[in-house]
Amino acid sequence: MNDALTDTSLDTFPKLLLRNAAQFADVPSMREKEFGIWQTWTWAEAAEEIRSFANGLAAHGFTRGDKLFIIGSNRPRLYWAMCAAQSLGGIPVPTYQDAVVEELIYVVDHAEVKFALAEDQEQVDKLLQVHEVDRSIEIIIYDDSRGLGDYNPEHIFSFESIQASGVEYAAKSPDFFEHQIALSNGDDVAVLLYTSGTTGQPKGVVLTHASLIFGAERVAALESLTEKDSVVAYLPMAWVVDHFLCYTLAYCTGYCVCCPENHDTLLQDKKEIGPSFHFTSPRVLEGQRTDILTRMEDAARIKRKLFNFFIEHASRVGISIQSGKKVGLVDRLLYFLGEIYAYGPLRNNLGYSKTRITWTAGEAIGPDMFDFYRSIGINLKQVYGQTEAGPFLTAQHSNAVRSDTVGVPLADVEVKIDEHGEVIFRSPGAFKEYYKNPEATRASKNADGWILTGDAGLFDHDGQLKIIDRIKDVGTMSDGSLFAPKFIENKLKFFAQILEVVTFGNQRERVTAMINIDLVAVGNWAERRNIAYASYQDLASRPEVYSMVQECIEQVNMDLSRDEALANSQITRFVILHKELDADDGELTRTRKVRRQIIHERYADLIDALYNPCVSRIKVETDVVFEDGRKGMIAGDLEIRDAKTFQTAQETG
User: Fold this and answer.
1) How many angstroms separate the Cα of 583 from the Cα of each of 99, 238, 285, 302, 485?
2) In this structure, are residues 238 and 193 in contact, taking their beta carbons and an 8 Å threshold?
3) Farthest CA pair distance, the chain
4) Exposed, middle or buried by CB within 10 Å (0-12, 13-18, 19+), for 26?
5) Cβ of 295: how many Cβ atoms within 10 Å?
6) Would the pLDDT of 653 be above 60?
7) What angle do CA 389, 108, 57 make, to 5 degrees?
8) Residue-wise DSSP of 295-357
9) What's the CA gap between 62 and 396, in Å, rounded?
10) Share above pLDDT 70 across residues of the chain, in percent, rounded to a whole number
11) What is the pTM of this model?
12) How far out from the chain centre does Cα 67 lie?
C-alpha cells in the first residue's frame, strides 16, 4: 500500500478498503453460496478483485464523475463494483432488480449513465431494451455468463474480461489505483440512490462518503459492531438499508457480508451462516410467525401441547428475563427448559442462532408480534430513518425497547417535531441534494439545514419517537376528526391473513377499505378447513374468507373505538380485491409503499361504490402486467360488505 495513504483520513470507502486489506487482511470480507457451497473472500482478496475491476473500467474509458449503473441480486461482484467506481471518482447507481424497462429508462437517462453492470442474462436483456431507447449506455458488463455466449461483443463485456483489461492496465500504471483513491475526499459523492417515488418519478438522493460514514460510526458504536460480526445480504441493493448494512457498515467495521444462493434458499442459507447482525421487516416477521404457528397446528398432539406451554410461559416472563428484571426461580427454571426444548430450536430454525441484534423498520409492528420474538430470546429493536438521512435517525437502546416507538436519536443527530407535527432532523449524515432537482432540494431542506421527513410523529415521556403516519396522508373526516390511513392500515396488516390495505376517509363521513389477502396464510387457513380454491381471485371471493377478514376488521374497529383521536375512523365497509396490488402495475413502489394517487385513479368506480349503501356488488376490470411482461386485464365481480362499528369511549361515557 502507498505510504502516503497511511496518514490520510479514512474519509472514503476506497480508503477504508485499503485500511481493511492491511488491517483485516485474512478476515472474511464476503461469502457467497453457489451450487450449495460457500465461497469466501478475505479483505485482501476483495481488494485485489476491486483493484482489477477498477483498472479495467479505467482502461475502457471510465473517468471521474461517470456513473456505474448496477442491477441484479446481492452478489459480491456487484458490491465490489461500487467500490471500484468510487475508487476512480465515479458514482455507483444501484437499482431494483425487479424494475421494468420503463423504470430503468428513466433512471439511466436522469443519471446520465454510460456504464452498466448486470447480474445475468435477464438483466442484460433489459439493458439492451433500454439501449434501444436511450443510447447513453456505452458499455454493458455482466457477472453471470449463462445464456450470453452469442451476444454482440462490441459493447457487452464479461466481468472477467474487464478485470483482465485491468491487469494489463495496472502493469503499465502500477500506482494508478492508489493515486486515484487519494484524489477523493469525504465530501465527494459516494452513491446515487433513487427513492421509491410514491407520488411521481423517483428522486435521485445524493449521499457523500462523509455522510454515510458518519451514520456507520454511530451505529457501530451503539451496537458494538466489529470485524467479527456478519450480516446476510438479501435486501434490494438499491434500497438505502442494504447499502448501509452490506456496504457502508461492512467497510467501516470490517465485518463479513454473506450472499445467499437465491431467494428460495435464503432461510436455509441464513441458518447455515447465523448472522450476528440482522435487519428484517414486520411483514417478514409476521410471515415467519404465521408459518411457525401453522406448522405447529399440524404437529403431533404432545409436541403441540409442549410448544404451546413454553410459548405461553415465554409470553409471561420472557421479556422480563431478557430485560434483566427480577423473575422467580420456578419461572426461570421453566424458561431454561423452554430454551432447550422450544426457544433455542425455534431461533435456530429461523436463522437466529448466533444473532445478537435484529433491527426492524419500514412499518409499524404489532405489540403481540414484537413481544413474541423478544420473549423467545431474539433481541428485536425498532429503528427509524429514510434515504435522505443516510439512512438512520433513531434507534432503540437495549435497556429501552418498546413496541410502540422507534427509539431515540443517534449520537449527534438532532430530531424534533415542528409546528405542523412533522418530524424534522439535522444531521452530518444527511443527503447532499436531490440530483438535478434543486427545487425539490429546497423544498426538503431549509437554510438552517433542517430536513423535512414527511412523517407525522411525537416524542413520548421517555424521549422516544413515535411515528403516526405520512404528513401528506393525514387528513380529517367530514366532522373534523383525525384520519390517519397508514396507522389504520398497519393495525390491519398485523393480521397474518391480510397482506395489503388501502383505506379511504379523508373529508368523508366514514372510512372504507380495500383489502389484499395473503395467499399463503389464507391458503393454509382454507386447506385446514377443506375449502377448495383454484386461484387468488377464487379464494378472495369466498364468503368464508370475507367473514374471516370481517372479523379482523371488527377487532381493529374495537381497538379504534378506545382511541380518543381515531375513534371515528372505524371501517364501515370493505371489499377484498380480485388481484394483489403490484409494483409492476404501478400500484406499489418497489419497497411496497402504496401509490395512493394511482389507487384513487385506477379504482375510482370501486371507491365510489364503497360509499354507496345501495351497492353490494360491483364488476371491475383492471389492467395488469404479467410476469413475462405481457399486458392484460383481470376482471372480477366483487362483494362489498359492511363491518360492525363500536361506540366510542365518549359515547359509552
Assistant:
1) 9, 15, 21, 44, 20
2) yes
3) 85
4) exposed
5) 13
6) no
7) 90
8) HHHTS-HHHHHHHHHHHHHHHHHHHHHHTT----HHHHHHHHHHIIIIIHHHHHHTT-TT-SE
9) 42
10) 97
11) 0.85
12) 24
Cα 213 to Cα 209, 218, 253, 432, 565: the distances in Å are 6, 9, 10, 14, 40
Give me the DSSP letters along 583-603. TTTTSB-TT--B-HHHHHHHT
Cell numbers given for 250:
461492512
The three cell numbers of residue 342 are 422450544
> Which own/partner pairs from 110-113 qualify as long-range (CB within 8 Å, at least 24 positions apart)?
110/201, 110/204, 110/435, 110/436, 111/67, 111/69, 111/192, 111/204, 111/435, 112/67, 112/136, 113/67, 113/68, 113/69, 113/137
Mean local confidence (pLDDT), 310-329:
91
Q: Give the DSSP per-residue string, 73-139.
A: SS-HHHHHHHHHHHHTT-EEEEE-TT--HHHHHHHHHHHT--EEEESSHHHHHHHHHHHHH-TT--E
Domains along the sequence of the chain with CATH:
3-276 (3.40.50.12780), 280-353+356-361+371-470 (2.30.38.10), 475-652 (3.30.300.30)
Pull the grid cell for residue 170: 495496472
- Per-residue confidence at 48, pLDDT binned at 50, 70, 90? very high
pLDDT band at 4, cuts 50/70/90? Answer: very low
Helical segments of 406-452, H only: 438-444
List, in order, residues 6 or more apart from 209 with CB less than 8 Å away. 11, 12, 13, 86, 184, 185, 186, 187, 188, 190
Separation between Cα atoms, residue 190 and residue 182, nearest integer Å: 14
Q: What are phi and psi of 302, to 5 degrees?
A: -65, -45
Q: Which three cell numbers stand for residue 476?
A: 380529517
What whole-number distance in Å separates Cα of residue 282 and Cα of residue 284? 5
What are the counts of helices (DSSP H) followed by strands (DSSP E) for the chain?
A: 25, 28
Please enumerate in sequence order all residues whose Cβ is within 8 A of that of 67, keeping only pairs 6 or more positions apart, or say none: 85, 90, 91, 92, 93, 111, 112, 113, 114, 115, 192
The secondary structure element, H or E, covering residue 388 is none
Provide CB contacts within 8 A for 524, sequence distance 6+.
Answer: 290, 294
Distance CA 296, CA 104 (A): 44
Tell me the one-letter amino acid at 154.
E
pLDDT in tens, 571-580: 999 999 999 9
With both helix axes pointing from N to C terminus, report the angle between 543-561 and 519-528 in degrees, rounded to the nearest 10. 120
Residues whose CB falls within 8 Å of the CB of residue 214, separated by 6 or more in sequence, listed in order = 390, 412, 427, 428, 429
Q: Which of 150-154, 198-202, 325-329, 401-405 has the lowest mean pLDDT?
A: 198-202
Q: Which of 387, 433, 438 is nearest to 198 (CA)?
A: 387
Residue located via cell numbers 360492525: 644
Nearest CA to 233 among 264, 198, 261, 196? 261
Confidence of residue 1 (pLDDT cuts 50, 70, 90): very low
- Cβ(244)–Cβ(326) below 8 Å: no
Q: At 279, give phi and psi (nearest 5°).
A: -120, 135
CA distance 341 to 348: 12
Neighbours of 441 (CB within 10 A): 18
What phi, psi does 530 have (nearest 5°)?
55, 40
